[in-house]
Specification:
Layout: H1 3-6, H2 17-43, E1 53-57, E2 63-68, E3 70-72, E4 76-84, E5 90-96, H3 98-102, E6 104-109, E7 114-118, E8 121-127, E9 133-141, E10 146-153, E11 159-167
Parallel strand pairs: 3-11
Antiparallel strand pairs: 1-2, 2-4, 4-9, 5-8, 5-10, 6-9, 7-8, 10-11
Length: 168
């Protein structure tokens, strides 16, 4: 802008150029913040998307969990648990933690051979395939906002801890 355009005028309309420039800067910052929030939402910061998905494995690699790190209250989320055991055998998986106690278990596929309560957790007997793996798909619905911890174990040495944050 030229120097003449920078000066405040009183004719034909009273204007304060310094104030107009501050308002323009404030508006520009608002557009940047709004754009950043929209990009983060599209990336999954507030729910489904690449940023909201997580994966955790046990130290020995026998248990792997794919889960939603970020979710919203009342929304169903999918959890995939893959375990390695003996070929054409059986394994017992223990689902424990606040996530499995607070969230509703909507679906469980494939159905386990046996299931029973163990402490505050749920023990599931699964059949492994010819490659020695068993995959369990769960659909959970959490209605409690906040951070919920989950634990999946295949014995004392094969434990996976993970956490999901539930937005209200």
């Amino acid at each position: 802008m030229t120097e003449d355009e920078q000066r405040s005028r009183h004719q034909p309309v009273k204007e304060n150029m310094a104030m107009q420039q501050r308002v323009c800067r404030f508006e520009r910052v608002g557009w940047y913040v709004l754009s950043l929030v929209m990009l983060l939402a599209l990336a999954g910061l507030f729910g489904r998307g690449p940023l909201s998905q997580g994966q955790a494995s046990s130290a020995d690699g026998r248990v792997q969990v794919q889960y939603a790190r970020l979710s919203r209250s009342g929304v169903t989320e999918h959890l995939k648990i893959t375990v390695r055991g003996p070929h054409n055998g059986q394994v017992q998986v223990l689902l424990d933690g606040e996530l499995f106690r607070e969230a509703s278990l909507e679906t469980l596929q494939p159905q386990p051979l046996r299931s029973r309560s163990e402490g505050q957790g749920l023990a599931l007997q699964l059949e492994t395939g010819t490659d020695g793996t068993a995959t369990l798909y769960l659909t959970l619905r959490a209605d409690t906002p906040g951070s919920l911890e989950g634990r999946v174990s295949l014995g004392p040495d094969s434990v996976v801890h993970f956490s999901s944050f539930i937005y209200p």
